[in-house]
Amino acid sequence: MSAAQIRFATLWRREVNRFMKIKKQTIGAPLLETFLYITVFGAALGSRIKHLHGIDYVLFVIPGLIMMAFSTNAFSNNSSSILQQKFQGAIQDQLSSPASPAELLLAFSLGGFMRGLMVAVLTFLVSVILVGLPVEHVLVLVPSLFLVGFFFSQLGVLIGVRAEQFDDVAFAQTFVLQPLIFLGGVFYSAALLPQPFETLTRFNPLFYMINLVRYGFVGFSEVSIALSLLALTAATTALFLFNLRLFSRGYRLRA
Amino acid sequence: MAELALDIQNLEKRYPTGVEALRGVSIEIEEGAFYGLLGPNGAGKSTLIHCTTGLAQPTGGSIEIFGHDAIDNYAEARQAVGLAPQEPNIDWFLTVEETLDYHAGYFGMPRRDRRERTRELLETFSLTEKRDERTRTLSGGMKRRLILARAMMHRPRLLILDEPTAGVDVELRLELWHYVQKINQEGTTILLTTHYLEEAEQLCDRIAFIAEGQIVAEGTSPELAERFEVPNLEDAYLALVGRKELSRSHIELAPEVEA
Q1: Please, which pLDDT band fits residue B106 given cuts at 50, 70 and 90?
Q2: β-strands A55-56, B189-193: how paired?
Q3: CB < 8 Å to B93, chain A
Q4: Can the peptide bond before residue A196 be classed as cis, meaning omega within 30 degrees of 0?
Q5: What's the rounded Cα separation, in Å, for the pair B69 and A226?
Q6: What ipTM was reported for this prediction?
Q7: In angstroms, rounded to a whole number, what is the distance separating the alpha carbons of residues B259 and B103?
Q8: What are the start-end ranges of the H helices in chain B?
Q9: Does A81 touch chain B (CB under 8 A)?
Q10: CA separation for the pair B122, A165 (Å, rounded)
């Protein structure tokens, strides 16, 4: 391995090591939360709603829950990791190393991505065993989940870099991210909503992400797949480039 | 003339708040030197160190580390520098051994080299028994040992010690003195900031006084004393900060000591 490869592998290893050391909190708790959602919405509501757009309600909901688990874990991992390291001053050890801004940004991003991916994959496997969750369009599902995970990893990095106290991270998660996810159609179809809520839902970017993932799993979507993939790719690229600019300038990282 | 380990010219740092921490600082430190930087709190010592190590971004001037520009060729420049900061900035999630191993990884050291170097420095700084402990459980002195060991992990050619002995016991202070003198004799250039003037006097070849973001005097300890027309470095420092009345020569000895 070259020095640059060792450096990047170490930066990435540190991020994964951080969440694996507290896996009850970082992996166990999100898994439990997701299964509680499946139990409540699948078993309780599912027995009354039965089907949505011809799909079993529980199968309709699970793709959104997998996407929610991926995104919230990727986001919260990165925002917390960066803020904690800023708070402790430990980030100085990485900032004073020869690592480039792109290496630092990618390593921080991949930490959250890995955690989100682990929770999402575990949720998927259990869903396959319990309710026979299908994968209808793997070529849509894989890039969609990759883009969703990377987008929220980047968003977590952005909030972590900007944050000056833990309240800033909690605010973004509780008052911005959670409402957008819940109002993005994880548990319902936008077509069932009365106006103006149906139209408003279409202004929520999470609605398109949930539909992409749902299409990948069960083959149903309320939006154009090609357009949604294109928009998500553009948004993820733009956010990555924006973060790269912040890292290059040392925004709230270097004095 | 030896190669310059650190060549700082007209360095300026103005923070977004408008505070001018450095106002045209120039320092040249030859390779192999043991260089002291003294000044009161808020004089600009830590800002200068942060600019040198990439933790702060200069607003003017230039910094070269062994001929590498600290901004344009930051990777080569930072590879040559080890920093033991004033505040223990260690990761609470890591163990002592991981702290050293990860640091070496950030500097591209291969695994086998990392293991050997970790073992060597754990031994040197009496940390072997603590190798598996989380850093947050360490005492203040142990944390100080760890950040010193970490700074030396990647065998830097320029070692920057920002008040390394602040708040440590006599034993560790003397251990550190012996160690840094040894590695200096082996060729490592050292930049030391300290508030302990006897430390600077004993260890440093040359010393610079910094005040209000400017270098106000530079030379050997006797040269500085001569420059301020006082008998020793401490009095020169007191003259610099305008507190000559605090000189030890004004302290009357207690009668029993006199007897």
Answers
A1: very high
A2: unpaired
A3: 17-18, 21-22
A4: yes
A5: 47
A6: 0.89
A7: 55
A8: 45-53, 74-79, 96-106, 111-124, 140-152, 170-185, 197-203, 221-227, 233-240, 255-258
A9: no
A10: 34
Give average pLDDT by consecutive 10-residue segment, chain A, 255 residues. Answer: 95 93 87 84 73 86 92 95 94 96 96 94 89 94 96 96 92 90 85 86 91 95 93 95 96 92
**Contact, A181 vs A33, CB < 8 A?**
no
Helices (H), A29-132: 29-37, 46-49, 57-88, 91-95, 101-131
Cα gap A180→A178, rounded to integer Å: 5
Burial B121-131 (b: 16+ CB within 10 A, else e): bbebbebeebe
- Three-state secondary structure call for residue A97: coil
Per-residue DSSP letter, B14:
E
How long, in residues, is chain A? 255
Cβ-defined contact of B110 to A6 (cutoff 8 Å): yes
Q: Provide the shortest C-alpha distance from residue A8 to chain B (in Å).
A: 7
Fold of B1-80+171-259: Rossmann fold (3.40.50)
- Of the candidates A9, A17, A254, the beta carbon closest to that of B55 is on A254
Q: Is B115 exposed, middle or buried (0-12, 13-18, 19+ CB in 10 A)?
A: middle
Task: Please tell me the distance from the alpha carbon of residue A108 to that of residue A102, in angstroms, as a whole number.
Answer: 10
**CATH 3.40.50.300 residue spans of chain B:** 1-80+171-259
A8 contact partners, CB below 8 Å, separation of at least 6: A99, A103, A106, A107
Tokens of residue B199, six digits = 């430390």
| β-strand pairing of B60-65 with B68-69 | antiparallel
Q: For residue B195, what is the DSSP state?
A: S
Give the tokens for residue B4.
């310059």
Q: Give dist(CA A67, CA A120) in Å, integer.
A: 7
**Residues A105, A11: Cα–Cα separation, whole Å:** 10
State whether A7 and B93 contact (CB < 8 Å): no
SS3 (DSSP) at B180: helix
Return the pLDDT at B168. Answer: 81
Residue of A nearest to B13 (CA): A255
| The two structure tokens encoding residue A76 | 């919260």
Give pTM, 2 decimals.
0.90
Report the C-alpha gap between B44 and A238 in whole angstroms: 38
Q: Quote the minimal CA–CA distance from A203 to chain B in Å.
A: 37
DSSP bridge pairs for B69: B64
